[in-house]
Amino acid sequence: MATARSGNGGVQSLQRAFELLERLADTGGEASLSELAASSGLPMPTIHRLIRTLVTLGYVRQNTNRRYALGARLIRLGENASLQFGTWARPLLAELVDEVGETANLAVLERDEVVYVAQVASQRHSMRMFTEVGRRLLPHGTGVGKAMLASFDPDDVRALLERTGMPSYTDHTHTDVDTFLDHLADIAELGYSLDESEQELGVRCIAVAVPGAPSPTAVSVSGPEGRLTDEAVRRIAPAVQRTAKRLSEQLATRQPVE
After folding, report:
1. What is the per-residue pLDDT across 167-194, written as a single tens digit (0 to 9) for each?
2. Other CB atoms within 10 Å distance of the CB of residue 229
3. Which of 172-210 are b and which e, b meaning 16 or more Cβ less than 10 Å from the residue's Cβ?
4. Which of 9, 100, 185, 230 lies at a 20 to 30 A Cα distance from 176?
5. 70: nearest Cα among 133, 15, 112
6. What CATH number does the domain located at 76-253 have?
7. For the IclR-ED domain, which residue ranges apply (predicted)?
8. Which of 34-38, 81-85, 99-103, 245-249 has the least mean pLDDT?
9. Domains of the chain, residue spans
């Protein structure tokens, strides 16, 4: 039997399967077959056949209410892809560290959590910031998370916060939804976010979202608040923005960083 191909030369069934996975991801939780059919425009028999295959493979699961959600088998793929992305981006992070003299980080948003996928530590100071690669935190309490959420629709931010809650990491962590949404609007206008001891006391962080990344991504510079003064922030923020822009350009061309 001939394999149907899409207009771009790809395999149509494979393309549709990945589109369904992305639509399930966009729901933030689960969806029914009829909802997937309505959002995708695909016929119900096609939806049913693709979902049944994805369930068999473990990439989709059927809940007890007969609705569908992303399966656990995707976790391994996502985590490996994120770590590889971090390795790929390390040369740009190293250049940023050389320029500003503080530690640089790269993080992505996975399953409502910020995951740190790369870090290059500064060797210029004896006191340095270390964030374990693979560490997971809720986005409302981190500079990188706030930079990502600042580009979201406010209703999507509310939905995420309803799922995660807003626990306090320190006395400076935002814990009120409406105040936090106003804060995100200020970040969007400014072009970068600041973590003002919101995740860890005595630590300040400057973060910028990477535009056009396939999943929400942000790059940051962190250090002791005694060194990351307001004057230092004004000097470092443009460098972080340039790095985010270069990462975006590299992602668009799919070329390795040199």
Report:
1. 999 999 999 999 999 999 999 999 999 9
2. 11
3. ebbeeeeebbebbeebeeeebbbbebbbbeebbbbbbbb
4. 230
5. 112
6. 3.30.450.40
7. 73-253
8. 81-85
9. 12-71, 76-253
Question: What are the tokens at 228?
Answer: 């990351």
Q: What pairs with residue 223 in β-bridges? A: 204
HSE toward the beta carbon, residue 59, CA cutoff 13 A: 16
Residue with tokens 């790059």: 219
In CATH, the number for domain 12-71 is: 1.10.10.10
Q: Tokens 């040369």: give the residue.
A: 91
